[in-house]
Queue: 2 jobs
Job 1
Amino acid sequence: MLDIKNLNLSISGTPILRDVNLSVGAGKILGIVGESGSGKSLTALSTMQLLPDGSSVDGEIVLKGQNILQASEEEMQRVRGQEISMIFQEPMTALNPVHTIGAQICEAIRNSTDLSKSELETRAIEMLEKVGLPVSRFPFSRYPHELSGGQRQRVMIAMACAQQPSLMIADEPTTALDVTLQAQILNLLRSIVDETGMSLILISHDLAVVAEVTDDIVVMRNGEVLDAGPTGDVLRKLSHPYTAQLAKASTHVPQRISAPVLSEEQAAKGTKPILQVQNIVRDYPTARKSLFQKGTPFRAVKSVSFDLFKGQSMGLVGESGCGKSTLARIVLGLDKATSGIVDFLGTNLATIEGEEMRKARRNLQVVFQDPFASFNPRHRVERLVSEPLYLEPQLTKSQRRDRVRAALSEVGINDSALDKYPHEFSGGQRQRLAIARALITRPALIVADEPVSALDVSIRAQVLDLLADLRERLDLTYLFISHDLGVVRAICDEVMVMDAGQIVEHGPVGDVFTSPKSQAAKELVDATPNLERALANRVD
Amino acid sequence: MPLFFLKKLLWAIATLIFASVLVFLALEIVPGDPAQVMLGINATDEAVAALRESLGLNKPPIERYFSWVSGMVVGDFGRSYTYSVDVRELVADRITISLPLALIALVLSTIIALPVGIYAASRRGKLADTVVMALSQFGIAIPNFWFALLMVYVLAIWLQLVPAGGFPGWNEGFWTALKSLLLPAIALALPQAAILSRVTRSALLETMGEDYIRTARAKGLSKRATLWNHALRNAMIPVLTILGLQFAYLLAGTIIIENVFYLPGLGRLVFQAINLRDLIVVESVVMMLVATIIVINFLVDLAYVWVDPRLRLRTS
């Protein structure tokens, strides 16, 4: 169906792709795997010829016997409309916010066929039904902002399928979605391939996803294809060292030196927890029903209680919208609970303010998900990392500098970083800086909100090692929020599963993940891609 | 949706009340006694005192404020100190010049700026874009009164296409009257058009980098179709904001332009009234300008909602 031969790409003189060769058979699914900067997305965009300005390409991209690199722009518009469709990673921004979903799907069909208006609408309705958005509940007049992320990605898929392409390229189609939605979308793509006989290129950073869905695999790094072949073969044999390294990193579990801290044992021993959360409720006001009638408040957190003991690593997992971030904000004292107690080292964070809160904050720090967005780009590292020290105003300038140095060395970053700006660091280094910033007040508890989700697998493994190492050395306690069960399993002692504002399951990680009891936990565990399980389930 | 209207309306009224207090206070603080100015420097103290009494200037400010505001609510703007006619008549006369002038200028600047901005954006980085942007930079830099003088010289004196100044009145025929407003309207519009075209261009270029534009291109739409069907409406949001702000600027700009072109409009009226300490006229005209601008902003708010469906959700 598609043959890419000796593809080279450079953008403004910088070589990006080198001698890329790959091919997809009719009705087959090809996975392209690689870390960020590997060139997997640009390979796709080269095929679509939607490359940024200043790109120059050579080689051959042969679609159904025709080298489309030679095609004119007009010819390419036909190819994009009728032969190749593409869906993208970010469903939140990939649809035009000012047009209805109906208009956007119909536009795609109109562009690839000469159907009449009513035929066009019939096909759009068919497509929406096929992706699980029945017109009775999702009429054409819906706007993208009225749909959730998963629903928007379904609209994207409906739009791409409506053109009845012979090849679909899906660029990280599920990376921005929850694991349960991810499983649904992957199943949907798989069934569309089976049903229509189109070919699919699935671009992903996740080996487990690729192992579950694809027939063949291509592993890329720095613009080059390193490894390729039938998925089962490549991932079982792991004969290429880089593929083996990726597989190892994605299932990496940092070593736990001291024994896991388990709530039951601690409670039996009568140890006092450092954090006691009791019956936390958080209501959000909703829009007024009318001028004289308030809306019914939305209860984001419904009576949650748990204890955290010193040295414990507690995971908090759940789908987006389950209330885990709200709970985290309440624990951090960034949000006030409507009712309930957050007893942290003897003070109730739910009631204190001002000076008392500042004192409590010294023992309570946070690491956020996005190492790119959580630093002010115009401040230098010294200032960024020392920021929490405003909580300790008695320090002199040189003491502050020493503290920054110490924190940086804890996370393995050289002193020379002090005067640099955040953009001079890679994603993994930035996350180290974020951890250093959290460590600088020598806190007792660190709340980590998806601290490794934005990182490539090999970097993720390093950062997890760092977190595990710091826990041992500094006797830290973690509240670790993630949608990635693999990560929680790797680093946490216990896990709490949250669903619709409540904790529905709580126990040691091993127990919850091997024999989940609640429906929500079961769904999460089943939906989480798992390389071993995926390989075991493969028929080839 | 009705709640949204109501909220906006309440805000508009609150803004009006606040503005009326400000206007009143500002003119209270400004030095210069209207009675003294009207009677001249040589007037006796008794004469001035008598005039103050008859104009009602001796009453306490609070009382004067309320009688002024309550008068305006029922359409009574008071009597001009200097012209001894109802301010309403005075204003009604002048507004038939200033409002059309500002509106023509607004329409002109929009119909120049949008195509120019779109064109420049579609030719980004090419010669046409560079030339257009250089010209617009020029348009922003040149003061409109200077540009007006230049146009008078070329179009009115040299080519004799339009009158150089003055206004014959609308009863001299629609075209004759319109012709004499054309030059001042162009002078007002050009700098605004220059700003607006730059905003349009940059807003469009920003939207052209959005993910949904890539989606549209991946669907097989041409660059052109993508720009018109997907980028333009999204780019209209910042453009509308600027358009709303510009109308206020245009109304204020008429003060200078009307003086340059000898147009008996509101701007000239205010200018003269300030010089003559005709406070009641100044207050009334300023309040009218404030009200017009509030109405325009209200319309811009509605236009946002029309352009961007996401706002409908938030406001309903």
Note: Residues 223-260 of chain B form the longest helix (38 residues).
Job 2
Amino acid sequence: MDIDRYERLWIMLSAAVLLSLFLALVYSVYALDIRLVDDAGQVDPATAAQTPPFDEPGVYQEGPGRYRVVMVARAWSFQPAEVRVPAGSDVTFQVTSLDVIHGFRVPYTTINQMLIPGQVSEFRFRFAEPGEHYLFCHEYCGVGHHTMQGRIVVETAATGAR
Amino acid sequence: MRRLQPEPAEPAGGPGAELYAQDRGHIQAFIYISFILLAVGGVYGTLQALDKAQVDLYPYLPGFLSLYYTGLTFHGVALALLFTGTFIIGFLSLAIVHGLKRPLADRGLAWATLTVAVAGVLAMVVPIFRNQATVLFTFYAPLKAHPGFYAGLVLVALATWMAALNAWQTWRTWKQDHPGERTPLMALAALATWAMWFLASLGLATALLVYLLPWSLGERETVNHLLTRALFWFTGHPLVYFWLLPAYLSWYTMLPAQIGGRLFSESLARLVFLLFVVLAVPTGLHHMYTDPGVEHSSKVVHGVMTYAVIFPSLVTAFTVVASVEEGARRRGGRGYVGWLLALPWLSDPSVAGQLLAMLIFATGGITGLINSSLNMNLVVHNTMWVVGHLHTQVAAAVTLTFMAVSYWLVPLLRGRPLWGRRWAVVQVWSWFFGSAIMARGMHWMGLASAPRRTYMSFAPYYGAFAEWNWAGIMTASGGVILFFAGALFFMIMARTALGKPNPAEAPQSVPEAGPLHDPPPTPRWLDRITPWFVLGAALAAIAWGWPLVRIATRYAEMPGFQLW
């Protein structure tokens, strides 16, 4: 096969770029321990609303500066619709959907997850600064999709948690 | 227009009349059907772009047509699935006919393909407009559509397989008549596209036939919604390559001839198309990075494979640009960069359109790399950014190339000269600017966290994000430019197709670029498809087997919901 000199150079450069991307990916996974959401448990969607922890959605303090938010999504609301945590908290979210596929997005953060009925989505985020965040569904879930929203209120640490 | 034939042993038949006579009818039918779908889907696209700036024109439409998510479903189905599918069937059929210099093997099968495709299109479109299938083009269960929606998609997929079969039979008879000869590149590219698509479409076919269709018919109570979602992406990502490879086919095998040049490296062109057969399918899980229930390791494997499939596109960037440069230099272009000025940017709409499509396509390649990165994906997943990326690829790169191709294809098959060449130049430039501006607005909105597939005019949180409004205005402006560019396209096509027959003034043949190195030293292993297909199937089985089995055997099923 006859390959032009410059073309050969280009191919080698392309391969080098892709190889470095590949190595960066391997590095981020194995050295930096970046993990994508995985299996965080299953729950029968038909009975999830009666199954712990989803029978009592809410905000639970787990330790100093550590909170767990248990939440259920259904068309077209999140429950609880408002979450209050003090600034500087490490928050673990545990969310599931009771009906169709929904999304869970808090703008300008890395909170960006799918909610699949039957699956538990579990993810963590540290809310460093006080302020108010919207949270909304980002997967089409029927005609009310654009109204499906909630709030995360990060209070100044002194006020404390609810 | 200058034509260079690599192998004069078999004349194309000068005036293409005889060569295309058998197949011009059904090919044109596919092209015109695709135009109708593009027109209606495009109007909805404009309405959606305006909605991003909270300009809501939907209420002015009658009945169910005025529903945002019904329009959004039609937009996605009509453009991503049906316009592309029907245009590609027509265009690849022509590439086979011209590439092998013989009519399609089975004329009856070709017309049957058209019948099945039309039935499929109607079966999908009618329930959508009756508001019985408002599930968007991804139709994620447990949202449950009217059975006609799923049955129609089965028929459309079947039509693509019938067209592939016809191409395959034509190739087989050609090989019997030409023992030991190299398959011409144009035909090999079309056949490789069909092979890639056949492998890719197995996921969608399984989702529809085994799960969704029986479920919507009531034969099945529940469906494993994570499984059908994964099967959708088995097909859904390589679907993009199914749109793209016909554009590549034009860029590699036709465009250089339109410029007056030759193909820089035929061997690498073959390698590129065959690599897509191997690498296209084991990639789809990068659409599910944020899905619970799909394990991390499978996602990493698909992330790596998505980087790998960029390789053939990087090779394309060199080979196609080198071919274009060679043509430009033969037209008198000089200098390291100055040769660009020798290209017919303002005189040949077909050439200009394809060059502009390539420019936008390059940006989409880079945003695609971002989407497929494990961690950067968290910033952009399901935001308007992804919509921007998709539109650079399908609305700009693919659609603009198909429009540019139509500027010679419709005149050729209709035997009439192109009406309004100057207007066509205006059309491709305005489509280019419109899609560039719209996509830029969408990317911006996405980086500001705006969700995709959302009726912004009524989103209660829209007002809290000042950036969305500016980015939305940019998106809407691009959408309006695209509306006028689209209207101009259909006017040019209608006046061309309905003009006075004048075969002498019309193009006589499909443009076909000869190789720069003649005879091209193409090795045998670049003239076969089956071994590459087997390799692709094996890779698909490795990358998809475990996650699919795992999802199929472990997880809960759901009844259906109609939330519209």
Note: Chain A is about 15% helix and 35% strand.
